[in-house]
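Quick one, tokens below:
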């Protein structure tokens, strides 16, 4: 049985994201969504030409 507060299993650490990390995540998903929509547009635009 470990003594003291040095063991990580004894205490629960709640880590919240910083504002910078939240902005990074939002920008990452926004750019990913834009790229995905652009890719789908190119695929379906080319698909309609061939018919």
């Amino acid at each position: 049985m470990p003594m003291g507060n040095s063991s990580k299993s004894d205490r629960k650490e709640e880590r919240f994201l910083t504002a910078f990390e939240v902005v990074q995540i939002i920008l990452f998903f926004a750019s990913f969504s834009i790229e995905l929509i652009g890719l789908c547009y190119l695929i379906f635009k080319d698909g309609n030409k061939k018919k």
